[in-house]
Specification:
Helix 11 links the parallel strand 10 and strand 11 (about 260-265). The strands form 2 sheets. The chain has a 9-stranded mixed beta sheet with strand order 5-4-3-6-2-1-9-10-11. Strands 7-8 form a two-stranded antiparallel sheet. The chain has 12 helices and 11 strands. About 40% of the residues are buried. The chain has 2 domains: about 5-30 and about 95-275, no CATH class; about 40-90, no CATH class. It is globular, with a radius of gyration of 18 Å. The longest helix has 14 residues, at about 75-90. By secondary structure, it is of the alpha/beta class. Helix 1 packs across helix 12 and helix 2 (about 40-50) runs parallel beside helix 4. The protein is about 40% helix and about 15% strand. The protein has helices at about 5-15, 40-50, 55-60, 65-75, 75-90, 95-105, 115-120, 185-195, 205-210, 225-235, 250-260, 270-275, and strands spanning about 15-20, 110, 125-130, 145-150, 155, 165-170, 175, 180, 215, 240-245, 260-265.
């Protein structure tokens, strides 16, 4: 089933299609003083974490690998402090995509970033926030849930969630209302293991996602991590699973998308936004 950008935009606006946001969703978000882009993809996060200097080729392959190296040398807290400083203490302009999402307010979104732009878009509207956790004792699950009443967050159990409210699912965490992140290899091993076992997704999301179709925005499938996350998060999807906006996709991305039932549109987010202007 082929779809045009206009069709996808209409489906996102109506809430029939679920946005799944990758690092490219933050394109256009910059430091208002320096103009430097917000660190979002793997390479930019590694450089920002290492004071602008590249690490060894082995570590530059993926942020989680570099974060594991930092964790082993300086402790897990060092990685979390870097992410908190980057996303909670620095000021960034908003990306064009997030401005658009703030206008249309989809009822269910998946955000594979750790920043606050999505939460800021819903800051005055009641919603449910789900964030991934890892290597945490005292619970069988790998998520925390917070209910937002339009002013503040309150942690709740999954049985107390209002099913009528929008769901913001941020598997890799965020700084607000308190900091929690999936970052290092050790975090991912724990989180993905429990995700595959069904313990990283609340029961109400498992019900709500049945038959859903997704639009992957700013999300590349070059690395195993992104492929594994999307495959498990989209379990139970409709036919087709959805669409992915990927300019110049690699052969590996084409094979993955074909296997997962994703149709590739060789376009970028700017073209999608132009289609609904």
């Amino acid at each position: 089933m082929s779809a045009s950008l206009e069709t996808l935009a209409a489906g996102l606006i109506s809430g029939d299609l679920v946005p799944c946001l990758g690092p490219g969703a933050l394109k256009g978000a910059v430091d208002p003083t320096t103009g430097a882009p917000i660190p979002a993809d793997s390479d930019s996060l590694i450089l920002a974490m290492n004071n602008g200097q590249p690490m060894s080729p082995r570590l530059m392959w993926e942020f989680s690998r570099a974060a594991m190296n930092v964790e082993l040398k300086r402790g897990r807290g060092a990685v979390h402090r870097f992410l908190h400083t980057t996303y909670a203490e620095r000021t960034w302009t908003r990306s064009p995509l997030h401005d658009w999402l703030a206008q249309i307010q989809p009822p269910y979104l998946i955000d594979l970033n750790r920043d606050l732009q999505l939460q800021d878009s819903y800051a005055t509207r009641p919603h449910t926030l789900i964030r991934g956790i890892a290597r945490t004792g005292g619970t069988d699950y790998r998520f925390r849930i917070h209910a937002h009443d339009g002013e503040r967050y309150t942690e709740v159990e999954q049985t107390a969630v209002d099913p009528t409210l929008p769901i913001l699912f941020k598997p890799l965490g965020s700084p607000r209302p308190d900091a929690t992140y999936i970052a290092s290899d050790a975090d991912y091993v724990d989180y993905l293991t429990e995700l595959m076992g069904g313990f990283a997704i609340p029961s109400f999301v498992k019900t709500r996602r049945i038959g859903k179709q997704y639009v992957c925005l700013g999300l590349r499938f070059v690395r195993d991590t992104e492929r594994m996350l999307f495959a498990d998060l989209s379990y139970g999807a409709g036919t087709p699973t959805g669409w992915a906006l990927i300019p110049e996709p690699t052969d590996k991305e084409r094979r993955f998308c074909d296997k997962r039932g994703l149709e590739i549109l060789e376009a970028d987010i700017a073209e999608l936004l132009a289609a609904c202007a």
